[in-house]
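for the writeup, i need someone to sanity check this before i put it in the appendix. the sequnce is what the collaborator sent (i think, or maybe the updated version? ugh). structure was predicted straight from it, no edits. if anything looks off just tell me and ill rerun, i have time this weekend
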Amino acid sequence: MNDDSTRENEQGRSSISNASTYEEMGEFWDTHCLTDFWGQTREVEFDVQIPRRVAVASVLYERLREEAERQHVAVETLANILLAEGLRVPNEHRVLAERREEYSVDK
């Protein structure tokens, strides 16, 4: 990687498209082909967390939806918090408020 692309990354810009927002990046890639820039790419590793789905009885879902609305959180977020509490996931009771984002599906 050359110094220019490193500097661009430090400034919060994409090293190839020189974009500073996802919208700018999308506009760039709408009119360019990755194969033209293949020599500027590098191998990376990352984890992908795929959300799992669980069926819930409609009467329980309605109660969950009402409570989530009252607490101003996503239904899925509240379900994750309640499951962690109910399953007594170690140490979760002390850090749920601080880790609400971890249980959120709105990332």
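Confidence is low (pLDDT under 50) at residues 1-8. Helices lie at 3-10, 22-30, 58-71, 75-86, 92-95, 100-103.
thx in advance!!
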